[in-house]
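Worked Example 4.2. Consider the chain below.
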Amino acid sequence: MKLWIIGGTSESVRLVNSVDRRALIVSVAGEEGRDRLPDDMDVHVGPMDRAAMESFIREKNIVAVVDMSHPFAKIVSKEAKAAALSCDIDYYRFKRPVEDEAGDVIFDDYESCAAYIKERTGTFFFTTGSKHCDLFESVKGESRHIYRIIPSSKSIDMLTDAGVAMEDMVAMLGPFDLEMNLALFKHAKADYLVTKNSGAGSGFHEKIEAAARLGMTSLVIRTEAEEGLSFSETKALVERISNGILLSLLHQ
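Applying the procedure from the previous section yields the following structure tokens:
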């Protein structure tokens, strides 16, 4: 029996480093997520759709799911919740504290942000990852688009497939402080910052402050409000469930 933690975030790394890991299994999308976890951690590497999640739950004898995926990973959360319901196990969602809204222009989604970008020309520095690069490239026009992404082959391949030149890729692993953001934005001679408000601890305000100091316009995509558990509540839940698993295995 295992308790499944959907990871890939700094909070999930912090959690597994602070509890007994013997009853846990963590899933991450890529090897870069695996590298951040303890060597003795039971880890599944690779994305899963709903069917794969259901098979994973059955094969690993999962008793509950604790979703600590990124606030913008809406599809992952939706599929995990549905898979847990289908397999008749509990699903819990960790909620990252929301940062105060900041930035010059705020958008509800990627599409409205892309429509805004389409009407303007300049150098845009994206810190939104690689997932929506094809959308942004489709409205590029005469502008220059620079993307800061995690240094994974998958992310680089997505940018390459979308037609992004190598000199417009910044493959680095965060977190990024104010000084690093200032240096990167200044080097790029960027006019616009395109970012997400991913919540507390995501480096959001460090990006906004750096852009403001350099006179850039910040374009911010807000995350949808959601219900969930705080970090302390999530940790207590994980400890309670994992202790129950260990006790049941001891008495078998």
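The two ends are 12 Å apart (CA to CA). The longest helix spans residues 231-250. Compare this with Example 4.1 before moving on.
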